[in-house]
Each structure stands twice: as C-alpha cells, then as structure tokens.
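Lab meeting, item 3. Inverse folding demo.
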C-alpha cells in the first residue's frame, strides 16, 4: 500500500483529461461566437456596412441578405490557417510531445484573441482569425491524440469524447455570450471575441501542470520516464503488457524515417482513408452550417434578433446534453451503432426542414409562428443526433486507429481534412443558401445517406481494441481493408510481405 504515494490520484487524472479537453472549448467557443457576432449590427456597421444595409432592407431576399464573401471570409479564414498549421503541429507533436503542442496552441490562440478584440479594420480582424486558426490547428492535432493515449482502454471512447463535449460547451457559452452581450452597444462584439481568451489561458497554464503521455515519452526515447508515468496514470505497477506494447510500437515507429511516405503504403490506407472521410463526412452533415450561422438561419425563418440568439442557446444546450449521452454509451454500444442511428435521425430531420422551408418560406416574408417553432425543434433533434455520433466519433475514430509510426502525421491529415471542408462549408454556406434556398437541406440529407452506407460497408468496430493492436484485430479481419494489409513496398517499389506478429 505504501507504493500508492507514487501514483497520481484519481481526481488529478480526471483533471488532466479536463485540462486537455479545454482545447475543445477554444474551438467550440469560436464556432459559436462567429455566427452571433456576424449577426450583431455594431459589428456589421464597423466592418461590413454593405451587409448591414442589406440586412435592414425590409424587402431583401430572405435567403440572400447575409450573402457576402467578406463576411464568410471572417469565419472561414481561421479554418484555412488551421489546415496549414496542422502539418507543422504534427511535427511538433512527434518531436516535442503532446503537451508542448497544446502550449503552442494556446499561445497562438491568445495572440489571435488580442488582435480580434482590438481590431479597428478588416485586415486586423482577418490576421487575428489566422492566428486563432494556428491555435486551432495545433490544439486539434494534439488534444484528441493526448486523450486517446492517456485514457485506460475500457474508457478510451468516453475520455476522448471529452474533447467534443468541451467543443459543445464552448458553443453553448458562445451562444449565451451572444445573447447577453448583443444589447451592449457599440462594443459588445469586442467583449464577445475577447472572452475567447479565457479557455486559451486555461490551456496555457494547464499545459505546465499535466504530464506527457507515456506513448510520447517512449517514442522520444525516454523509456523509464514513460514507464513511470504509465504506472502513475494507471495507478498500478502491473503495466507490463501495455508498456511492452507501446515499446514495440515505438520500435516499429523508429524504423519509419518518413511517416509521410509510410502513409502512401497500402497498409496505411485503411486508417488514412477512414480518418479523412470521417472528418469530411462530419462537415457534410451540415452541422457547422447550422452552428456557425444559427442566429442568421433563425432570422431567415422569421425570428427577431433576440429570439434567434435565444434559439441558438437552446440548440447549444441540446448539443452539450446529447454529447454526454455519447460519453455514456460509446464504449457500451460501440461506434457503428451510434453512427447508424444518427444517420437515420439526421436524414429525417434535414429532409423535413427542407420540405417546410420549401413550401412555406418564400423570398420575402417569414414563416408562421408554428412552422418556425417546428423548424427549431427539428434543428434540435438534428443537433441531438449529431452530438452523440458524428461530432465526437469524427475525432475519436481517427485518433485511435493509426499505428504509432504514422499517428501524428495521419491525424494531421484527418485534422486538415476537417479544416479544409469546414473552410469550404463556412465560405460557401451563405452563398449556397442564397442560390439553393430550402433545397440546401436536401443537399446535406443526400450526404447523410452516403455516410450511412459508408458505415455499413466500410467502417469496422474499434470498441475495446488496444490502439497498438488495430492492425491484427481490426484491419486484417475486415472484408474490404484486409487486402491492403497483405503487403507494402520497399524504396525500390518491390512488394514486401507484412510480418504478422504473434
């Protein structure tokens, strides 16, 4: 019993999970705050006066009054910066560790917050967004990997989903801020953007407190330190199997001098394709279109400014509570069951919303009170199903399926895919809504149908499978992906059989 003094306490271990997950709070707050700020008159008057004039013109087309490329650039520039920075983050994550990558992420984000809150012109605003993007790129690279590596096997799904839970909490906090600050003229938008510094500061300080993951330490040659930390976080000295598994994975990783080249090999294709497609599909559910522009969307269907912001708060609360459902169920029912159930629910809700708007919302005028309330309820049902499925699992599955030798590099491709398609959706949604009108919801519904078929045929179950045992127990057992595991190629292009470990 005396040895217990060397182990971390359970509250401290949970504290480490929560501090890392604050990276999701930064990401989520930004998602939520962007749409609210772009609906504030003071913000539009200062940076986008032409959009303000269009918004105030009573006869303006309902679907087109916010269609402005510069407004969309304000939102989407962050994701373009995050896309690029995720590859640099991959190198930092591998060479210097997960916690230092989170430290860098918080530093970039704090610079971006300062520039945005103090912005006096559009250039300053966009530069601030780019720094925020660097922070998001580094944070979204490091946090899910950190959580998957530090979590015990039987809780890995739940611990990793803390990232997405904090994303949803960030969105809810942003919606609350938007709601209460919209009446503070003319500086309310500055406070809304400046409060993004709170989670960034928490992550900055927390990065000095939390331990590095055993996997990262062992990967960087600190074997004894890695073993010590593993004993501390597992709260037992009986960690030989897990330790030896990480060491073997690390030895294999060191044989790979170019992880980018390794990712081009057939054996890397299953986790790479799935990791990237999970992120692409996550965006084509239409969720960020809803979250970015929820206040704008609700103004479009007829809610006044305060009512639309309040509706966004309700949606944010639904988002948080439903993510808790995922934490409770993901390690019990598995990844596939949650994804397939959600596909059905999202497909139905998107289709019905499209039908209601197509029939009842013309270019001018607004929905009737009953129809508008039904749209809000359907959006809540849609967000509910996303929040316990594609939201958290889009990050969980890529973080747990790459072998160590390509983990940070492969996850960088997943993160960059997310940021690329988040950028595309953010930049295109308002224009799509202007041109496609209500049929934009049918567009997303069609993608959800494709996603469901992908899960049925190509996504294996990874519940309760050790991260470094995925090749043997998942990929080599799958009817489609096993053919990619049979052989790779050497530097001369010759086929070399993969060695199956006993």
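The presenter then showed the designed sequence:
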């Amino acid at each position: 019993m005396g040895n217990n003094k060397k182990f971390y306490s359970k509250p401290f271990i949970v504290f480490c999970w929560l501090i890392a997950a604050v990276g999701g709070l930064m990401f989520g707050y930004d998602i939520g705050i962007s749409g609210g700020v772009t609906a504030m008159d003071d913000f539009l008057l200062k940076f986008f006066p032409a959009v303000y004039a269009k918004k105030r013109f009573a006869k303006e087309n309902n679907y087109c009054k916010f269609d402005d490329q510069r407004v969309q650039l304000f939102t989407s520039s962050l994701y373009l910066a995050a896309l690029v920075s995720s590859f640099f983050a991959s190198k930092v994550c591998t060479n210097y560790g997960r916690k230092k990558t989170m430290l860098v992420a918080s530093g970039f984000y704090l610079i971006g917050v300062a520039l945005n809150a103090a912005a006096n012109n559009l250039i300053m605003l966009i530069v601030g967004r780019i720094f925020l993007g660097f922070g998001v790129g580094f944070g979204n690279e490091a946090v899910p990997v950190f959580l998957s590596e530090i979590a015990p096997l039987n809780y890995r799904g739940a611990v990793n989903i803390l990232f997405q839970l904090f994303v949803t909490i960030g969105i809810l906090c942003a919606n609350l801020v938007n709601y209460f600050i919209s009446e503070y003229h003319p500086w309310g938008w500055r406070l809304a953007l400046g409060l993004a510094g709170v989670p960034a500061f928490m992550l900055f300080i927390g990065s000095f407190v939390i331990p590095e993951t055993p996997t990262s330490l062992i990967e960087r040659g600190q074997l004894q330190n890695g073993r010590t930390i593993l004993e501390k976080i597992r709260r037992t000295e009986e960690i030989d199997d897990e330790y030896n598994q990480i060491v073997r994975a690390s030895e294999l990783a060191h044989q790979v001098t170019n992880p980018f080249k390794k990712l081009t090999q057939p054996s890397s294709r299953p986790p790479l394709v799935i990791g990237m497609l999970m992120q692409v599909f996550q965006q084509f559910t239409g969720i960020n279109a809803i979250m970015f522009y929820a206040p704008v969307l609700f103004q479009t269907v007829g809610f006044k400014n305060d009512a639309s912001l309040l509706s966004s708060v309700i949606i944010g609360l639904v988002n948080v509570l439903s993510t808790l459902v995922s934490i409770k169920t993901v390690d019990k029912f598995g990844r596939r069951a949650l994804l397939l159930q959600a596909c059905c629910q999202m497909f139905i809700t998107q289709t019905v919303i499209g039908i209601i708007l197509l029939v009842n919302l013309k270019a001018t005028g607004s929905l009737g009170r009953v129809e508008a309330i039904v749209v809000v309820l359907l959006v809540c049902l849609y967000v509910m199903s996303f929040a316990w499925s594609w939201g958290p699992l889009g990050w969980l599955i890529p973080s747990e399926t790459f072998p160590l030798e390509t983990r940070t590099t492969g996850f960088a491709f997943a993160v960059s895919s997310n940021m690329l398609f988040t950028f595309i959706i953010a930049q295109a949604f308002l224009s799509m809504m202007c041109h496609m009108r209500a049929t934009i919801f049918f567009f997303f519904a069609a993608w959800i149908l494709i996603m469901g078929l992908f899960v049925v045929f190509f996504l294996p179950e990874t519940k309760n499978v050790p991260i470094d045992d995925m090749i043997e127990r998942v990929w080599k057992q799958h009817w489609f992906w096993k053919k990619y595991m049979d052989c790779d190629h050497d530097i001369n292009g010759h086929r070399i059989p993969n060695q199956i470990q006993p």
